[in-house]
Design a protein that fits this description.
The structure holds 2 protein chains of 2 kinds. Chain A is α/β, with parallel strands linked by helices. Chain A folds into 2 domains: about 220 residues, Type I PLP-dependent aspartate aminotransferase-like (Major domain) (Aspartate Aminotransferase, domain 2), CATH 3.40.640; about 120 residues, Aspartate Aminotransferase, domain 1 (Alpha-Beta Complex). In chain A, about 35% of the residues lie in helices and about 10% in strands. Chain A is built from 8 helices and 10 strands. A 7-stranded mixed β-sheet of chain A has the order 1-7-6-5-4-2-3, with helices on both faces. A 3-stranded antiparallel β-sheet of chain A has the order 8-9-10. Chain B is an alpha+beta fold. Chain B has one domain: Translation Initiation Factor IF3. In chain B, about 30% of the residues lie in helices and about 25% in strands. The N and C termini of chain B lie far apart (about 20 Å). The model of chain B has no long low-confidence stretch (mean pLDDT about 95). The chains are: A alpha/beta, B alpha+beta. Chains A and B meet through loops of A and α1 and α2 of B.
Chain lengths: ~375, ~70
């Protein structure tokens, strides 16, 4: 089956960036013509921009099941994480975080002071008994590398909870339990450069950074109105399509999990059931992660890896380390909304050959 | 701790220390022990993971950068 999408077949890295949703593309182009002005100005073009921004906020709120005045657009998911997490924290108190949080959460926690890290089990699930006497607790909705859903509903905290929902926003509903949430538009098919911060009404949130005099007191800098509106359009489309897309992706990921596990000395990690629909991670013994990614790319498949040799820091993935699973030879496959069964089958035909060839090169 | 075989993998990057272990662990008899000297950060996670995946026993870390494994099969 030929794909209608504008991006190449074999791109299996939607967890890094989902290709722009067609609904976002149309909206983005139209909004550049109508949403260029400063939304704080009282002239016609300014009022137009303000209308579009308010509309974007209303759509995102509706899609997430929150109030419009709880939604803030930021310049990235990382910025939403920093503002959300640090704004909940009182000065001088620690951040308690799960050991499998995204690096943006870990960096913000380290910046704030002495973070307290809480272990996870082999599937990457945090102990629901996690607690903290003071400060703020950070637990993601779902893990960005292995897909495991966190037991947020079971948490019983006496302190504010920050939820990094960047990996899951749009794909699955927001959890019920949170004081602030962060999301990232390019992970659901919106444009890059748009983050979403949601702060629960009535929660004590103090801007941890210099203030600004924009439309929204939690934001700073000139609003990217066209991108926010396009992000909202993509989110609306993704939420409308997700029952069908998730079921299809869940079944394709089951197929990948079974086929990868059948390759000798390959460990598929993450929760097999309580997981995000679109992503799966596995590690191949005796294989260099960089060589694996490079060889798969040569055959037309774009995947990510948590192995040390593929990281800018040259350290293995914190997530895989915390789970105690093999960090080398690691591959993360994440499906786009229109990844086909044929693409998955092609990848699964290439994988055992690539693994076998790379092992043969080292005499195993 | 004394072992039956010691593999000096200092300076090797992942996955080389685990490759050496995979290639050479069968040089010791079943029940025998192997120490892997490795300063690559991934070894701390990957050597116990190798033991789990290959059905061998991870005895533990014996001082800095020394990982001890027992051959079970």
């Amino acid at each position: 089956m030929r794909k209608a999408a504008a991006y190449p077949s074999g791109y299996l890295d939607s967890a890094s960036a989902e290709p722009l949703h067609p609904a976002a593309r149309e909206t983005l182009l139209a909004a550049y013509d109508r949403g260029y002005a400063d939304p704080r100005r009282l002239h016609g073009p300014g009022r137009d921009a303000r209308l579009l921004l308010d509309n974007a906020r209303a759509v995102v709120a509706e899609c997430l099941g929150v109030r419009a005045d709880e939604v803030t657009f930021t310049s990235s998911g990382t910025e939403a994480v920093h503002r959300g997490l640090l704004g909940l924290r009182r000065p001088g108190t620690p951040v308690t975080l799960s050991a499998v949080e995204h690096s943006s959460v870990a960096h913000a926690a380290a910046w704030a002071g002495e973070p307290v890290e809480v272990a996870v089990d082999r599937r990457g699930r945090v102990d629901p008994a996690i607690s903290a006497p003071e400060g703020v607790v950070a637990v993601q909705s779902a893990n960005h590398e292995v897909g495991t859903l966190q037991p947020l509903a079971a948490l019983d905290l006496g302190v504010p909870l920050f939820v990094d929902a960047c990996a899951s926003m749009g794909r699955i509903p927001l959890p019920d339990r949170w004081d602030a949430v962060a999301g990232s538009a390019h992970k659901w098919g919106g444009p890059p450069g748009v983050g979403v911060l949601v702060v629960r009404k009535g929660v004590r949130w103090v801007n941890p950074f210099p203030g600004d005099d924009r439309v929204d007191e939690r934001a700073s800098g000139f609003e990217n109105v066209p991108a926010a509106l396009a992000a909202a359009a993509a989110l609306r489309a993704v939420v409308a399509e997700r029952d069908e897309v998730n079921a299809r992706q869940h079944a394709l990921v089951d197929r990948i999990r079974a086929a990868a596990a059948a390759v000798p000395d390959v460990e598929v990690v993450g929760d097999p059931v309580d997981r995000l629909p679109h992503l799966v991670t596995f590690s191949c013994l005796y294989v260099d992660g960089e060589a694996l990614v490079t060889e798969l790319d040569r055959r037309g498949y774009g995947v990510a890896s948590g192995s040390a040799c593929t990281a800018s820091t040259l350290t293995p993935s914190r997530v895989l380390e915390a789970m105690g699973v093999l960090t080398h030879g690691n591959v993360r496959v994440s499906l786009t909304r229109d990844t086909t069964a044929e693409e998955v089958d092609g990848f699964l035909a290439a994988l055992p050959e690539v693994v076998r060839d790379l092992r043969a090169q080292v005499g195993l | 701790m004394t072992v039956d075989l010691e593999l000096d993998c200092l300076g090797m990057l992942c996955p080389r220390p685990v490759i050496e272990l995979g290639k050479r662990y069968a040089e010791v008899p079943v029940g025998g022990t192997i120490a892997v000297l490795a300063d690559d950060v991934a070894a701390r996670t990957d050597i116990p993971a190798w033991c789990r995946m290959r059905g061998q026993e991870f005895v533990g870390e014996d001082g800095e950068h020394r990982y001890v494994v027992r051959r079970l099969s």
